[in-house]
Specification:
Radius of gyration of chain B: 12 Å
Strand order of the largest sheet of chain A: 5-4-3-10-9
CATH superfamily of chain B: Beta-grasp domain
Structural class of chain A: alpha/beta
Oligomer: heterotrimer
Radius of gyration of chain A: 21 Å
CATH class of chain B: Alpha Beta
CATH superfamily of chain A: Aldolase class I
Number of helices of chain A: 8
Shape of chain A: globular
Distance between the termini of chain A: 47 Å
Helix content of chain B: 10-25%
Number of domains of chain B: 1
Order of helices and strands of chain A: EEEHEEHEHEHEHEHEHH
Chain lengths: 260, 66, 371
């Protein structure tokens, strides 16, 4: 991990990615973005409701942000590809978060369809960040087909339960070369810090900020937690002297001369 | 004549462009996305394409999402 | 992308410069990390890391117990033939060596197999020299088909093959591949391999990967230590293993650390690898690749092998004969005339087993069985 976050060749200024769903008042969003210092901001695409027209979400997002439309609503690869293409045609840029959910009970991502969608969209020139259930073989496959980052869930979406998949995410961090971004489940700033201390390159937070009593302050707290966790990771946690060096029980034989 | 908008059938006047249709609905065409008979269309086309019977229109917009 | 691209990336790296700027803090820092990157591994192979061998050993032991438990897998080699068309300056099978050339026929192979199986082995490593004419794939395949009656797992250590040839042997019953690059340094490789198909560095380098692609269950690689600066050679072996692990998750990758032994012919090692150097290589490799198998052969003397077990060894050969027909043959004199290298640990299987039990380790003769 370098001190800078680079995704698909593009430098990203903040390791906190922010989702814009579930905000009680959209006008808070610019302030949340400013205070949290988030740069990558996700949005979703929906059919227009003519009866209840509201301000376009894009208008609340500062121009220097990287827009990352998600493919929420897609139940298979084909639908995800369609949504991604529409979003790009609408001027959202090349970034896309693949989110394919075919399970309405737990809202867990469909890893198989996610791989298929990733492969297609990479070929179409997208910068693809797939959201997935942390599974090493799937992550390897995503990397192989050209994912720009891999986004394992920390806990089921919207649950705010924290980094429940820690041991699996740790394996992905160790084995996958593209950035690992923990998405979903991060409920508290300390959860975000934990993911960063573990070596995640970034976290994506939405519900925990949007549904807090004060989204602006909590957004700021998340921004700080992400930075703190990343710094701790870079510094190397606790120089604990785990291996005492007083005696040489294992290598002493080397000093005993020709012992045969 | 009948066209389909966002999956629902709708009776509209003859000889109107997509832009006129949107304006009638009070929709600001900026930052919305139009899929016309399965194809995504650019801003300029909105003002040129005249709707005909059985057309399929998807009017999409960006909303909050994570 | 093949490992060759990775080799090229590091070929001109300033190894000496990197090792020189390391200080004690760097080494201690690395030993405190849970996971090592490529440069960390290189640092642990440095002269600076030499005084940290005990710390490395403690960590290596812990990691090995965590990933493998207290078991050592035992196997023995079976030399089918020693015909060879290559001229490798360091090898006793060199085409120019005037040794008795032999090739076992099927009934001789059956005799050897029976003798080996009677010692308790269920896994076998079969070897040939490189001669597609004398020991073609067809011959090896017939031998494998015969050996499946005696053994549950068959590994090959033969000349490098194409993917479809590996597939053919896998279909016949092979599940593991051992192939040593001998020398990773390409210039030195060219110097040491004077003639024969083995001159093709690239084809040999990619052989382990072709084995993975063909569906080998286990792949074992190594450099013949002593042919070139051992620190660099160990480094390339380690990153080669890492490359295979990363790209072929289903393959069990292991490393061997064969040291040059006196052998027929006049070539002697260029870079002396002392016991402490060998230990450093094993420990650095374990710390860099916690789940890789580490293999120590009977090239090494008994007392050293015994001491290495608790440092991270997971596989060892026992009661090995490196001559063709060495097991069923009663005349042991013959060994000395035609063996590929000298054996240093001549203990019987029972003696090795007893030694392992004494250290609290379980010898394993049968690791898996493919249905």
């Amino acid at each position: 991990m370098t001190a800078k976050l680079i995704i698909d060749g593009q430098e990203v200024g903040s390791r906190l990615f922010l989702g814009t769903g579930k905000f009680p008042d959209k006008s808070l969003i610019p302030q949340v973005i400013e205070n949290s210092k988030a740069q990558v901001v996700t949005v979703a695409l929906r059919r227009m409701n003519f009866e209840a027209q509201e301000e376009n979400i894009i208008n609340y997002i500062p121009d220097d942000c990287i827009l990352m439309p998600n493919t929420s609503g897609a139940r298979n690869a084909e639908e995800a590809v369609k949504i991604a293409k529409i979003a790009r045609a609408a001027g959202c840029g090349d970034w896309v978060k693949i989110e394919v959910i075919s399970d309405n009970k737990y809202l867990l991502p469909d890893n198989y369809e996610t791989i298929k969608a990733t492969e297609i969209l990479v070929k179409e020139g997208f910068t693809v960040l797939p959201y997935m259930s942390p599974d090493l073989m799937v992550a390897k496959e995503l990397e192989k087909v050209g994912a720009a980052a891999v986004m394992p869930l920390g806990a089921p979406i919207g649950t705010n339960r924290g980094l429940r998949t820690k041991e699996l995410v740790r394996i992905l961090i160790e084995e996958i070369e593209v950035p690992i971004i923990v998405d979903a489940g991060i409920g508290k700033p300390s959860d975000a810090a934990e993911a960063m201390e573990l070596g995640a390159e970034a976290v994506l937070v939405n519900t925990a900020v949007a549904t807090a009593n004060d989204p602006v302050i909590i957004g700021e707290a998340f921004g700080q937690a992400v930075e703190a966790g990343h710094k701790a990771y870079l510094a190397g946690l606790g120089r604990t002297k785990k291996y005492a060096s007083a005696s040489s029980p294992l290598t002493g034989f080397l000093n005993e001369g020709a012992n045969d | 004549m009948l066209i389909k908008v966002n999956g629902k059938e709708e009776e509209i006047n003859e000889e109107i462009t997509i832009l006129q249709y949107l304006e009638n609905k009070g929709v600001n065409p900026e930052n919305i996305v139009i899929q016309y008979n399965g194809e995504i269309i650019d801003g300029e086309d909105v003002d040129e394409i005249i709707l005909v019977a059985n057309d399929n229109l998807e009017v999409l917009k960006f909303v909050g999402g994570g | 992308m093949s490992f060759y691209d990775k080799y090229l990336k590091w070929e001109d790296f300033d190894f000496a410069g990197y090792w020189k700027q390391l200080n004690d803090d760097d080494i201690e820092e690395i030993l405190n990390q849970e996971r090592l990157n490529t440069l960390d591994y290189l640092a642990l192979l440095s002269p600076k890391a030499e005084k940290y061998l005990e710390l490395m050993a403690q960590k290596a032991q812990k990691l090995t117990l965590k990933h493998f438990g207290k078991v050592v897998f035992l196997y023995t080699p079976l030399y089918l033939a020693n015909y060879c068309v290559n001229q490798c300056l360091y090898c006793g099978f060199n085409v120019k060596e005037n040794i008795e050339r032999k090739k076992l026929n099927l009934s001789e192979i059956a005799k050897e197999a029976e003798a080996i199986a009677n010692m308790g082995f269920r896994h076998i490593l079969i070897l040939t020299g490189e001669s597609r004419k004398k020991t073609p794939v067809k011959y090896i395949k017939e031998a494998v088909e015969l050996l499946t009656d005696y053994f549950d797992s068959i590994a090959i250590e033969i000349y490098p093959l194409e993917i479809d040839e590996y597939e053919e042997l896998i279909a016949a019953g092979v599940d593991s591949l051992t192939i040593y690059q001998e020398v990773y340094n390409q210039e030195q490789y060219d110097r040491l391999h004077i003639a024969g198909p083995k001159r093709n560095y690239h084809f040999r380098l990619d052989a382990p990967e072709r084995g993975c692609k063909a569906g080998m269950r286990a792949v074992n690689i190594g450099a013949l230590l002593g042919l070139e600066d051992w620190r660099k050679e160990a480094f390339f072996t380690g990153i080669h293993a890492e490359y295979l692990q990363n790209n072929y998750l289903d393959v069990e990758v292991s490393l061997s650390v064969p040291r040059m032994r006196p052998h027929l012919g006049s070539f002697q090692p260029e870079s002396k690898v002392e016991d402490e150097n060998l230990v450093q290589i094993l420990l650095a490799s374990r710390l860099f690749l916690p789940r890789a198998g580490l293999n120590i052969s009977t090239r090494e003397r008994a007392s050293l092998r015994d001491n290495l077990i608790s440092l991270g060894i997971t596989k060892m050969s026992a009661n090995a004969k490196t001559s063709v027909g060495g097991y069923a043959e009663s005349n042991t004199e013959l060994d000395d005339d035609t063996c590929q290298f000298e054996i240093s640990d001549n203990r019987t299987v029972n003696e090795v087993t007893t030694m392992l039990h004494k250290q609290g380790y379980q010898p394993v003769f049968k690791n898996w069985h493919i249905f």
